[in-house]
Amino acid sequence: MSNKLNESGPSRPKRICTNREYENRIEQMIFESESDEHFEFSDSDSDFMAEASSRVANDSDSSECSDIDVDVDDTGNIQNTPTQSWFEEETDMPNFNFTKYNELLVPIPGDGSPIDFFFLLFDDDFINLLVDETNSYAEKEFLRIGHYPSSRISTWKPTNKDEMLTFLALIIHTGTIKLNRLNDYWKKHHLFNITCFSNYMSRDRFLVIMRCFHFAPNIDDQAQPLDRMYKVRPLIDYFNNKMNTIYYPKRELSLDESMVLWRGRLVFWQYIQNKRHKYGIKLYMLTEPAGLVIKFAIYTGVFDDMGGQGHASKVVLHLMSEKLENGHSLYMDNFYNSFDLATSLIQKNTYCTGTLRINRKNTPVEVKQAKLKKGENIARYSNGVVIGKWRDKREVAYISTEFKNNLVVSTNKRGHNKTKPEPIVNYNKFMSGIDRQNQMQSYYPCTRKTIR
């Protein structure tokens, strides 16, 4: 018995010793420090997860992060970052004029009632697209071998434009009258008797249209789609093109991310801690400060057209592609802002202002290393860009190509006055478009949790 105890069994595999510096180089090759996002990636079921950090939007937020302040060439070798000349005194700041007008680019439809503006956005071409794609998909499902005769799809009849408009109206109305389940809207019980639904469409017809609701044709099961968003790509392109055609926004624009709730299986599923919907699909949105969405894009992983190296800059230039050279003032948080992006936007006659990660490339060393007391700030100028740091409850780094490092008095909603740097004051004033949009959308939610 003792011999058996003394016998050595199979040894446990030894853990491979990793070189952290080598790992940092690999990570840097994929996610460059100036464009790295600090959100969770789950591309291709990867186990790589990075916890989200909050956007710096007020006095108490922090701009610290753990990015690597190095530059990497195409071969993966770490290069020395060229020294940028920074000056304590003000240098020439750019001066752009706003060359456009905030206006509706088409005549006001009808008598200006809400339904007229609805049809301005959702015109006949869009409704016909929904009708054609829904009928096409329903026909394939109807002819598919293996469906049960008692299923709803067996009673399918082609839909048309009028019925599709009724279907969309009922979906919107579910956001104003909130019930737990879709079936509750057709109940005959006196506590649930809402005749406005059953008078316009039967429950089974509504559910079968929702079952077949489509925006684009499906691809062959054996083919690998090049575009992960191909099923809703016509909807995305339609909205972006439509907004660019009918409306030109104000001078001030804000750019940030939003979330669409989704808890199912998805390759590019995301988790963002400080959002109302923490789990779901991440959207990059360009909005006006009042909350009107001008353009949006969906993040589909590190291997899409805007993913990988330079991701944040690619997102900004994509969303601003039709608005450059016109003198806009763009407000962004510390995920997007960098010195290189700011100088690039200057060349395109566009201002940018916002918070900054203190360890981004080309950030002045004096600003990085400065130890500030409450109320103090420090800033440096170079090539029309000012980068500074100000301390309130925590240190907040900021960047601007429009506002100088002047201290101005700001009054909060409680009537208290506080002296802050001018870039921070304007950032807090105009960087509210996404939050406003999410607030307004939360009043009338029509999303439903379904099996499909």
Automatic annotation (TrEMBL):
Pfam families: DDE_Tnp_1_7. Residues 113-450 form the PiggyBac transposable element-derived protein domain. InterPro entries: PGBD. This is PiggyBac transposable element-derived protein domain-containing protein.
